[in-house]
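TASK: fixed-backbone design
INPUT:
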């Protein structure tokens, strides 16, 4: 492992350090999209980690004790990702990603840009994505008639256009297809788990492919971004199989009545 500089300027070497403990849900690492965000970050920053899988239905006293110590909530059920980095403990996916990036990311190559404007635009993109993309996945899955499914498809099309417009207006288009052009960033880390799930689950369950929709609608910038994010090696190496995704997300699907 190579040495890295922390955000406060201290030299941090991951070569000699203990692996970061990374709590994730069984039965398969990354089956939780929020945990996959942390996994992507470990891979991108080349950090040593120990994957600790816990059963969602029986989270165990050890894990619950760690989580409750972090949140100061003695009744909390415990969420992933949760990490232990030496004596420091943390939870919540976006916070974990930022912490790891700030502490171990190389200056000039961090997932969150140092430039204040780029930093803000990347974070705003992830907020908009949650509203325009993540939420509509469930709108499509909950559609229970052909009519409501058609309306959900139209809403997804409309939202994809908004995301395409945002990337064209505020992203970069130099040397690559990521939000920041050639630079992979926080914009991809926070969204890739949901891009993958939508690409795998929706065609299988509800006759809709966001990848194909972006192409059909002529949303070239969004289409290139989507494909680049999924093709990233860290995306290929993290998360469950397509079959596992289809099986695990079937519980969110409402069958059509007609």
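OUTPUT:
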């Amino acid at each position: 492992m190579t040495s890295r500089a922390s955000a406060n300027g201290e030299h941090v070497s991951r070569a000699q350090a203990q692996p970061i403990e990374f709590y994730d849900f069984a039965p398969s690492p990354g089956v939780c999209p929020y945990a996959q965000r942390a996994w992507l970050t470990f891979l991108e920053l080349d950090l040593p980690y120990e994957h600790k899988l816990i059963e969602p239905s029986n989270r165990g006293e050890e894990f619950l004790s760690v989580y409750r110590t972090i949140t100061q909530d003695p009744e909390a059920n415990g969420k992933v990702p949760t990490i232990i980095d030496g004596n420091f403990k943390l939870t919540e996916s976006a916070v974990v990603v930022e912490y790891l990036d700030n502490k171990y990311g190389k200056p000039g190559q961090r997932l969150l840009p140092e430039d204040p404007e780029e930093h803000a635009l990347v974070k705003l993109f992830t907020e908009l994505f949650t509203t325009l993309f993540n939420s509509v996945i469930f709108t499509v899955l909950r559609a229970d008639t052909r009519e409501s499914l058609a309306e959900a498809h139209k809403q997804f099309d409309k939202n994809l256009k908004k995301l395409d417009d945002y990337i064209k207006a505020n992203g970069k288009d130099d040397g690559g297809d990521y939000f920041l052009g050639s630079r992979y960033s926080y914009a991809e880390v926070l969204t890739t788990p949901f891009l993958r799930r939508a690409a795998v689950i929706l065609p299988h369950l509800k006759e809709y492919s966001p990848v194909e929709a972006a192409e059909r609608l002529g949303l070239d910038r969004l289409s290139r971004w989507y494909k680049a994010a999924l093709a990233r090696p860290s995306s290929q190496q993290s998360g469950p199989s397509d079959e596992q995704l289809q099986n695990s997300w079937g519980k969110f699907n409402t069958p059509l009545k007609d």
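COMMENT: The first strand starts at residue 3 and ends at 5.
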